[in-house]
Amino acid sequence: MSRIIPPRGAPRKLALAQLTNSVGDGAYYVTSALFFSHVVGLSPTRIGAALTLGWALGAVIGVPLGHLADRRGPRGVAVLMSATTGVAVASFLFVRSYPAFLVAVCVYACAQCGLAAARQALLAAMVEPERRTETRAHLQSTVNAGLALGAALGGIALQLDTENAYLTALALDALSFVLAAWMLRRLPLPTGGANAEPPVRGEPRMAVLRDRPYAVVTLLNTVMLLYMPLLSVALPLWVVQRTEAPGWTVSALLVLNTVSVVLFQVRVAGRVSGLRSASRAVRQAGFLLLLACAVFACSSLGSSAWSAVALLLAAACVQVLGEMLLGAGSWEIGFGLAPADKQGQYQGFYGAGTAVARLVGPLLLTALILSWGTPGWVLLGGLFVAAGSAMGPAVRRAAAGRTPAGASFDPGTRSPSARQEGPRRPSPDTAGGHPGN
Questions:
Q1: What's the sign of the alpha-carbon dihedral 294, 300, 302, 303?
Q2: Dihedral of alpha carbons 152, 153, 154, 156, sign
Q3: Which of 308, 317, 350, 419 would be a feasible disulfide site paired with 245, CB 3.0-4.6 Å?
Q4: pLDDT of res. 44
């Protein structure tokens, strides 16, 4: 169980807070679309336009909210953003007009992006650099466990298919974020890391916006994150429209993915111990995702339902291994290249890649995969390989600009921020962390 449950202290408390709101999120994800269309009465086009605008704003505002976490403290901003998310979800229970819905979606998306940045800054402030990726892996396992439980509860609402059932699912999500805010409020204030140093006079407030090497790394990571809309949007449509596999296969693939991350993410993250191994993990993830794309493409060949199911399950196993390697490498890179006193704004910028992938991914992937078929799968796999292979040189360039002769890229060195913070010493708060999304 030590591979799943975080150590005692702040990591476990943060995991409990994350578990709480991820249960609510799981219920929200499986019911919100039908609630907005069946109960609120909105067309799919209007829902999609509102979500696009909301996540676009969230991607932009994540950086200044992360900067606020650097200057005012990540715990307070995380509490505020969690409570704001809860209020935004609660407002969905009452809005019945499109303008009100649009405002609520924008507040929700901005608060979610701000919460992600503040949580990452909180992790950086409370956890020693050499433990951040491991802690992040624990929390990712917690997220998946909570999402699975919440999705099961949301499934009950879908089965009942009544307004009250949908309202209950959304109310559960709103309450989960309020409870998570209360749990975060009970954490001790971090006394080191991002908030220990005052801003340097004359230094730009949004330094991350001028950090081109970090921007390149973020762009490459965004390309790799296209696996998310692949799983949630493109693959289910592919299974139903282009293969002989039965419809329940979609649920089986999602369950396989979730359970694998819960059980093995921490073990996979143990392979990453610095920027060199992180870059290698991302490169390996690119090739694994290419292999998964090739096997997914083969699932459309033949007329046997069981052979299609077997190929889809095999591809999903390869894909989730690539996903876990990518997660471990990406977290290490995102933390390691960020200055110790600017983790909030840097994590806000790095985390914007998630919002961008969710924005452009559905349209891009459905066009590639459903319209082009096998060539589209191959092209997508090629994108993963290209981005994963380019990550190493991009990280070396970014690391060289932060420490003399790129010393932070040596296998025995954890990260630039580890060098900036000096020798390892116990944290007054016994360490802790929180994932971004």
A1: positive
A2: positive
A3: 308
A4: 80
What is the spatial distance between Cα 314 and Cα 87, in angstroms, rounded to a whole number?
41
Residue 374 dihedral angles phi and psi, to the nearest 5° = -60, -45
Distance CA 12, CA 16 (A): 6
Structure tokens, 404: 């003399």
Find out whether 62 and 346 touch, Cβ atoms under 8 Å: no
Burial class (CB in 10 A: 0-12, 13-18, 19+), 334: buried
Q: Estimate to the nearest angstrom the gap between the alpha carbon of 249 and the chain centroid.
A: 24
286: closest CA among 229, 317, 325, 231? Answer: 325
Q: Which domains does the chain have, with CATH numbers?
A: 1-191 (1.20.1250.20), 207-418 (1.20.1250.20)
Using only the alpha carbons of the chain, give its radius of gyration: 21
* Candidate from 27-41, 72-86, 199-213, 291-305 with smallest mean pLDDT: 199-213
Q: What pTM was computed for the model?
A: 0.83
Q: How many residues does the chain have?
A: 437
Separation CA 258–CA 147 (nearest Å): 8
Q: Are 416 and 311 in contact (CB under 8 A)?
A: no
C-alpha 233, offset from chain centre: 16
Residue 189 DSSP SS3: coil
Among candidates 52, 17, 18, 31, which has minimal Cα distance to 362?
A: 52
